Amino acid sequence: MSGETDRDLADQDLLVKIRGLHFSRGSRVIFEDLDLDIRRGSVTAVMGPSGTGKTTLLKLITGQLHPDAGTIEVDGEDVLRLDKAGLYRLRRRMGMLFQSGALLTDLSVFENVAYPLREHTDLSPSMLRKLVLLKLEAVGLRGARDLMPSELSGGMARRVALARAIVLDPMMILYDEPFTGQDPISMGMLVTLIRQLNDASRMTSILVSHDVRETTRIADFLYLISQGRVIAQGTPQEIALDASESVRQFMDGLPDGPVHFHYPAPPLAEDLSAQGRKR
Ligand SMILES: Nc1ncnc2c1ncn2[C@@H]1O[C@H](COP(=O)(O)OP(=O)(O)OP(=O)(O)O)[C@@H](O)[C@H]1O
């Protein structure tokens, strides 16, 4: 007998395990006792209203931010206990595609994708070339290798950034609003690509996005977070059947509901009458 319990086996199935996460920015509470799991091999979407802390969550997972309390495990390692070298090693195994993840403008498409390989490996030139071309092929842009970033459309640039994010063969890729600013065709292409790359390379993907329709199309599992907590979780089919008001407000894009449009502030009249005395 192996001695492994069902719980141990279930834990091994998780690439990311977050428990009891608390995080504040000054007096503003961003997360309050948040639990979240990312299953190996899955595409998991984290959705929620603007300013709810989705980008912050990705930064906590990658160890760029430190929580006030709670635990964050990635591939069995306690992120909060890793030293600088350990964190560096772990981050190398995570690809990131951030909305602002711009390409280096003075380098060609090829050199942009080659950049992490040149920084982190000492591969021979012919091996490096093969790897770059394979990653560019995966995003459909092998033929664009000699173009400069200024010659690319927005959608192409995002795909080059994606090739760069996967060039070190990460175990996981984190997408932060990858569809922002894309026309419907390139958005559709990116959505399909995210799913294909995940499955073909046996990766795990975390997708932060506002785009309910596109995201539910490819996600295996969804988390809806609001006001510091998980307010719903499940497969897209399960969430579609969730009738609670806050879930419907977000999923159906309703302007009114439990989630407020205004960032917390004192009453308007009070604020206006204080004019001249304070900001
Ligand atoms: N560097 C910072 N310093 C102080 N507060 C910050 C900082 N970065 C983010 N915040 C605050 O933390 C909260 C969560 O921000 P975050 O960017 O994680 O939200 P989000 O859910 O990703 O939002 P969006 O969907 O609009 O991108 C917001 O209230 C924001 O104002």
Which terms would index this structure?
279 residues, alpha/beta, Rossmann fold, six-stranded mixed beta sheet, four-stranded antiparallel beta sheet, 11 helices, binds adenosine-5'-triphosphate
What is shown here, in short?
The protein is of the alpha/beta class. The protein is built from 11 helices and 10 strands.
Please name the CATH topology of the domain at 41-49 and 82-93 and 170-273. Answer: Rossmann fold
Number of distinct helices: 11
The coarse overall form would be: globular
Percent in helix: 25-40%
Query: What is the count of β-strands?
Result: 10
CATH top level assignment of the domain at 41-49 and 82-93 and 170-273: Alpha Beta
Average pLDDT reading: 88
Distinct compounds present: adenosine-5'-triphosphate
Largest sheet composition: 6 strands, mixed
